[in-house]
Amino acid sequence: MTKSIKTKVLIADDERIIANTLATILNQSGFDARAVYSGEEAVATAEVFRPDLLISDVVMGGITGIEAAIKIRNRLPACKTLLFSGQAATAALLQSAEADGYNFELLMKPVYPGDLLAKLRA
Question: pTM value?
Answer without folding.
Answer: 0.85
